[in-house]
Amino acid sequence: MIGDGMELTYDEMKQIPVFSSLKEAVSFVCGTDTIIEKKQPVHGGDANDAYKLFLSNGSILFLKANTLANADFFRAEAEGIAAIRSTGKVRVPIIYARGKDSGFSFLLMEYIDSGKLQPDFWEKLGVNLASMHSAATAQYLSTGKYGFYSNNYIGAGNQKNTPKNNWIEFFSECRLRPQFEQAEEYFDSAIIKAVDKLLNNLDRFLFEPKRPSLLHGDLWSGNFMSDEMGMPVLIDPAVYVGCNEADIAMTELFGGFARRFYDAYFDVMNMVPGYEERRDLYNLYHLTNHLNLFGSSYLPEVMRIIRWYT
Ligand code: ADP
Asked: The domain 10-110: what is its CATH number?
């Protein structure tokens, strides 16, 4: 629950026990003689396999699994969840353990038993996110104002978080440029020229925020859920410190957030005029990442946005 372990600093909170077998991890979390009795697949994610685990002591846990080569996904996810948790503003699942077993890597966490959305679910999600975006951020970086102390992943793609003092420089060098470089095989010379022009002119469209915010980083409708009380929980983040608008823009990319969410959010956070004109530029990062991960069906939308801004 929010509040559990809140006496810990972020540095302490992100120290998740690491095991060399799932059996050891389960014993550590639930007691020595506890074994997994049933493993039920959970669908809905895009980068990992997920399971609801039924244990011999009656507990239920949530397990994410991937290949050994992708074990670092779970280091990053655990650190991101810990960062959100350390704000104390939004519920996230408790992370119990991570590790490698024979042939797979894993992340073991609290199972959230989703209930029917409470009537004020959307308002709570908006207000909680605004509070998270208003929390102090210095503990997530050793230097600079934007970024994160470690790199992480956006879906299955690499996400670079090298700290910068300037948001526009961060968005250019750690977000758009690496995605554009990876997408070069899809771009003709006219688009490559346009991309260069866009990267050189970002300050015509973006602004330096009054204060940096801890962002979820991958806030689409598949990455929040309701808890047993029907209240909001955030899952599967790609956290970094950035401009709050980048999170809000992503909520609009694939839809699924109610109007009441935005009303509640912008009751707390000022909407800086011109947000609608910046939204697609922020989402260009995610769309180009999708182009790189899932292929050319995302190319027309990526090109449309690049052309619009150049
Ligand atoms: P991926 O990393 O593969 O995208 P997700 O973290 O999005 O996977 O999880 C996949 C699905 O599992 C989610 O859509 C959600 O329905 C469910 N889920 C995620 N975390 C939990 C949890 N802690 N407890 C119960 N169900 C969860």
From this structure: 3.30.200.20
